[in-house]
């Protein structure tokens, strides 16, 4: 249950927020209905003040980031025609389709020994030729070449796909991947759990209950995971809150989630954006900040809330540090998925720029490991030139 937190009520312009502030101050858990009120308020600064108070009680002024490197080994995906929000996937013979050989993976990861990279973040498509053998060979090879680098890899959707094509249980797949070197899992593939929304944007994708089931098994095996929600497309506030409630319930049960990352939908280069007439129109900064703040306030049992600057811009991610966020990206080396969907952010940020961003918000930057243990806070004596740090959800 949440701990009592002091809130400056003078910063709350919307009277509807006062009863919720009272609950937070008394350490009373917010309900789904309370969360809907937070999403509907026009008092963005009041909402931010509440989320900031809760975040400061947990983390003070510390803002963490990880040094990691994206590897997207294949964009071939059997759901190419049904996940209408995706701009990354390709069919096997479609222009732009690719699947890395192991040598290409080793080449992609080669900079890890000469930079500060501490984590590989590995996700891709649902490729019929990328099953358990493909990924166990990959993970073992990466561990042999880079034993110091943590492997965070494969969404729940990818795990279920491997189990299906290799005719194995989810548990057996996860055990085999863990033995090969898997350390933690990212949170992608959640989208929005509502069956109606999934029928519209990802008809044949893993259901919300199945996504939760994969993460539950991972947690039971001691594999910590992140979790996400894709917002800003066809979902309602009620859909968002039902999604968050399912995440909170699993966290109550297992305690296995490391972080929550709201992901902004990008409408470019995908069928859904064309259908909605949204091409070139991303989510608003107002809604981006609301999703982060509500995540902090409602998910009282998830310690870390992360802003994905690739999706919402560096400026908004900096502002989010006063809306409940305690973790930022570093740079992302060769990130492909969100840039295919129209992300207009850069693909790199130097460590110096990242430190400037965090300090400019009045916060204290700290490099962390994949389990959110602080590694260092003193950077000036050994600032790297380039390449810089890499970060991912």
Outline of the structure:
The chain is an alpha/beta fold. The chain has helices at residues 18-26, 32-40, 44-59, 102-109, 132-145, 156-165, 170-180, 195-201, 208-220, 237-254, 271-276, 285-298, 309-312, 314-320, 337-340, 351-360, and strands at residues 62-66, 68-71, 119-122, 150-153, 225-231, 257-264, 304-307, 327-328, 364-368, 374-376. Mean pLDDT is 90; it is low at 332-345 and 381-392.
Key phrases:
393 residues, single chain, TIM Barrel, 41% helix, globular, 12% strand, 3-stranded parallel sheet, 7-stranded mixed sheet, disordered C terminus
**CATH superfamily grouping of the largest domain:** Aldolase class I
How many helices? The count is 16
Domains, number: 2
Q: What is the highest CATH level, the class of the largest domain? A: Alpha Beta
Order of helices and strands: HHHEEHEHEHHHHEHEHHEHHEHHEE
For the CA atoms, what is the radius of gyration? 20 Å
Gross morphology? globular
């Amino acid at each position: 249950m949440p701990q009592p937190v002091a809130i400056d009520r003078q910063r709350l312009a919307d009277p509807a927020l006062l009863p919720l502030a009272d609950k937070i101050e008394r350490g009373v858990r917010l309900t789904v209905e309370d969360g809907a009120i937070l999403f509907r308020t026009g008092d963005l600064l009041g909402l931010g003040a509440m989320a900031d108070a809760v975040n400061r009680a947990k983390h003070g002024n510390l803002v963490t980031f990880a040094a990691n490197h994206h590897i997207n080994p294949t964009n071939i995906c059997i759901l190419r025609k049904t996940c209408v929000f995706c701009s990354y996937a390709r069919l096997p013979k479609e222009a732009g389709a690719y699947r890395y050989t192991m040598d290409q993976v080793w080449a992609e990861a080669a900079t890890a020994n000469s930079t500060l990279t501490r984590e590989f973040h590995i996700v891709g498509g649902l490729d019929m030729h990328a099953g358990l053998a493909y990924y166990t060979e990959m993970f073992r090879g990466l561990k042999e070449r880079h034993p110091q680098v943590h492997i965070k890899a494969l969404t729940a959707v990818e795990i279920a796909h491997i189990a299906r094509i290799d005719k194995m249980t989810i548990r057996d797949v996860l055990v085999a991947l863990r033995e090969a070197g898997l350390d933690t899992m990212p949170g992608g593939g959640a989208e929005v759990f509502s069956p109606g929304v999934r029928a519209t944007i990802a008809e044949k994708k893993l259901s919300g209950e199945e996504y939760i089931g994969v993460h539950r098994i991972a947690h039971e095996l001691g594999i910590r995971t992140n979790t996400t929600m894709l917002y800003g497309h066809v979902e309602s506030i009620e859909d968002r809150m039902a999604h968050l409630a399912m995440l909170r319930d699993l966290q109550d049960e297992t305690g296995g989630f490391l972080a929550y990352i709201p992901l902004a939908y990008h409408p470019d280069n995908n069928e859904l954006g064309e259908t909605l007439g949204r091409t070139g129109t991303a989510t608003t900064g107002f809604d981006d900040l609301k999703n982060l703040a509500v995540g902090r306030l409602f998910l009282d049992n998830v310690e870390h809330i992360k802003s994905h600057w690739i999706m919402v811009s560096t400026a908004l991610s900096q502002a989010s540090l006063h809306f409940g966020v305690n973790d930022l990206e570093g740079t992302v080396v060769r990130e492909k998925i969100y840039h295919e969907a129209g992300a207009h952010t850069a693909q790199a940020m130097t460590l110096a720029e990242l430190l400037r961003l965090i300090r400019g918000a009045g916060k204290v930057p700290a490099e962390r490991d994949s389990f959110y243990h602080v590694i260092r806070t003193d950077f000036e004596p050994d600032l790297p030139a380039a390449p810089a740090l890499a970060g991912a959800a």
